[in-house]
Design brief:
Chain A: This is SufE family protein. Chain A: Belongs to the SufE family. Chain A: It holds the Pfam family SufE. The structure holds two protein chains of two kinds. Chain A contains seven helices and two strands, in the order ααββααααα. In chain A, helix 1 crosses helix 3 and helix 2 crosses helix 3. Chain A is mostly helical. Chain A has a single domain, classed as Sufe protein. Chain: A, CATH 3.90.1010. In chain A, a hairpin with a 2-residue loop joins strand 1 and strand 2. Chain A has a two-stranded antiparallel ribbon. The radius of gyration of chain B is 22 Å and the shape is globular. The model of chain B has no long low-confidence stretch (mean pLDDT about 95). Chain B is of the alpha/beta class. In chain B, a hairpin with a 2-residue loop joins strand 1 and strand 2. Chains A and B meet through helix 2 and helix 3 of A and helix 12 of B. The complex binds pyridoxal-5'-phosphate (PLP). The site of pyridoxal-5'-phosphate (PLP) has 13 residues of chain B, from helix 4.
Chain lengths: ~140, ~425
């Protein structure tokens, strides 16, 4: 599936919830299901700045696809992170760089999450795009 | 009348009437009634304070100490009246011992960069405590980098109290300055500052007390404390943001070099030499925060009308009730169980990150603070990344505390 197809699917799933509780229970559930990041990647360098709780992000190339793995101490953030991974992980650096993440607004997350957490999410997206740019440059110079 | 003549202290205040003075309490958050429990971060402002601000801008806005026209005179006298009110509020001996600042942080930086740079030298020791707000750590670290002073830290016990024996061991002839918090923002602990000051003076050290969290709960008497400096912020005292005051003993303020240079703080300027204005103006360069200075007088008067003792008694009742109710929640642990506390409760819930607590409570209209509360070394001391903190003010109620308890139960149900 393309990045936009995945986003559209998420938007559809969120349309099923008519109250905040359902929405948050879903996000918490995603957080619980996200596999733990192996301890060797929970390094100082992999910590994303700008989040109230610690978020680790690890990235590597698999063929021409960029793979992300991530984790957080806080379960709601972990659920949000899981959504970002679902949307962006496993695509080429180029696709990731071009991605417009409209789902964040469409599922009502920017308004449903306090400012600081939205900012944390924004730092995460920024960091993912930074990895995409870095790997794209490496690939081009090969 | 907000105060009824009844003997039972805690019920002397008409809380519903007080609540009506705070328009923000009518706000709906996520469709729910706002429950505002983040008072240690900043309190809400009563109508008289809002009116004082509007009245100044609407009727006598003018720059102070400069013009001779009617508005300038009126603004100047309101501005200076506020200084008098703060003098009385802290029981300072002289009006000129009150320096307007933009808050606690500003006051501490002022003292570190003037008294500290002028009178402390390499090898001199500065004592702070493990429960300081970053604003009472970083300015001293900056000073240490500048002049080679050494920072020493009073440790904290498991209940969140300063270990006084350790403090006494740290004191020596090398100790030149002690800067500690009166009331901890993260734990609510009230520190025995009078004793701390007395011990510091015995070795000849000067003392600054960070009163940011104390002024809205306790009666402050700087002469009785015999403190050299005392700082606070108006916004934690039902007053406006970006305004605060530094109290300093007159002889110290006189001996200290000025902080920022500019207008107002000078007597005469030539390109060869400038002579500085006298106290308090020496430390008040530039056009000050006139409106907010004027409005803080109203905030203090508001609190005085309620009666600080009545407020403290009521807040203690809220604290006792909340402590009792919260401890009934399985897995909840209160961080900071000092014998002397103000109405601040920091807690952690087993298996749940404080941020998740904050997000889900927010969905229910309940505002608490989550995180490290600008006290990272203290969080490290307790081995936790942070806490959730509920802090109560005079307009809070037991019904709101019940909502918090239900709210936390919901957090547990959703997350665990
Ligand atoms: C104990 C303590 N000290 C200092 C400060 C800093 O106050 P301000 O940000 O108003 O300068 C605070 C406020 O959070 C505080 O709680």
């Amino acid at each position: 599936m393309t990045i936009n197809e995945i986003q559209d699917e998420l938007i559809e799933e969120f349309e099923l919830f008519d109250d905040w509780e359902g929405k948050y229970e879903y996000i918490i559930d995603l957080g619980k299901k996200l596999p733990k990041l192996s301890d060797e990647y929970k390094t100082e360098d992999n910590i994303i700045k700008g989040c109230q709780s610690i978020v680790w992000l690890h990235a590597y190339m698999n063929g021409d696809k960029l793979i992300f793995e991530a984790d957080s101490e806080a379960i709601i953030v972990k659920g949000l992170v899981s959504m970002l991974l679902k949307v962006l992980s496993g695509h080429t650096p180029e696709e990731i760089l071009k991605a417009d993440l409209y789902f964040i607004n469409r599922v009502g997350l920017s308004s449903h999450l306090a400012q600081t957490r939205s900012n944390g999410l924004a730092s995460m997206v920024k960091q993912m795009k930074a990895y995409a740019l870095a790997f794209q440059t490496i690939e081009e110079n090969k | 009348m907000l105060v009824e003549n009844r003997t039972d202290k805690a019920t002397m205040l008409d809380i519903q009437k007080i609540r009506a003075d705070f328009p923000i309490l009518d706000e709906k958050i996520n469709g729910k009634d706002l429950v505002y429990f983040d008072n240690a971060a900043t309190t809400q402002k009563p109508l008289p304070v809002l009116n004082a601000l509007a009245n100044y801008y609407g009727h006598y806005n003018a720059n102070i100490h400069r013009g001779i026209h009617h508005l300038a005179e009126k603004a100047t006298s309101a501005f200076e009246a506020s200084r008098k009110t703060i003098q009385k509020f802290l029981n300072a001996r002289y009006t000129e011992e009150i320096i307007f600042t933009y808050g606690t942080t500003d006051g501490i930086n002022l003292v570190a960069q003037t008294y500290g740079r002028a009178f402390l030298k390499e090898g001199d020791e500065i004592i702070i405590s493990a429960m300081e707000h970053h604003s009472n750590i970083v300015p001293w670290q900056m000073l240490c980098e500048q002049n080679g002073c050494v920072l020493k830290v009073i440790p904290v016990n498991d209940d969140g109290e300063l270990i006084l024996e350790a403090y006494e061991k740290l004191l020596s002839g090398k100790t030149k300055f002690v800067s500690v918090v009166h009331v901890s923002n993260a734990l609510g602990t009230i520190n025995p500052v009078k004793y701390i000051i007395q011990k510091a003076h015995e070795v000849g050290a000067k003392v600054l007390i960070d009163g940011a969290q104390a002024t809205s709960h306790l009666t402050i008497d700087v002469q009785d404390l015999d403190t050299d400096f005392y700082v606070f912020s108006a916004h934690k005292l039902y007053g406006p943001t970006g305004m605060g005051a530094l109290y300093g003993k007159k002889e110290l303020l006189e001996a200290m070099p000025p902080y920022r240079g500019g207008g107002e703080m000078i007597k005469e300027v030539t390109f060869e030499k400038t002579t500085y204005n006298e106290l308090p103006y020496k430390f008040e360069a530039g056009t000050p925060n006139i409106a907010d200075v004027i409005a803080v007088k109203t905030a203090i008067e508001y609190l005085d009308e309620l009666g600080k003792e009545n407020v403290a008694a009521y807040e203690n009742e809220l604290l006792a009730y909340a402590t009792e109710q919260l401890l009934k929640i399985e897995g909840l642990k209160i961080i900071g169980q000092a014998k002397d506390k103000v109405s601040v409760i920091s807690f952690v819930i087993e298996g749940i990150h404080p941020q998740d607590v904050g997000v889900i409570l927010d969905q229910q209209g309940i505002a608490v603070r989550t995180g490290h509360h600008c006290t990272q070394p203290l969080m490290k001391r307790f081995g936790i990344p942070g806490t959730s903190r509920a802090s109560f003010a005079v307009y809070n109620t037991k019904e709101e505390i019940d909502k918090l308890v239900l709210g936390i139960e919901k957090v547990k149900k959703m997350v665990l």
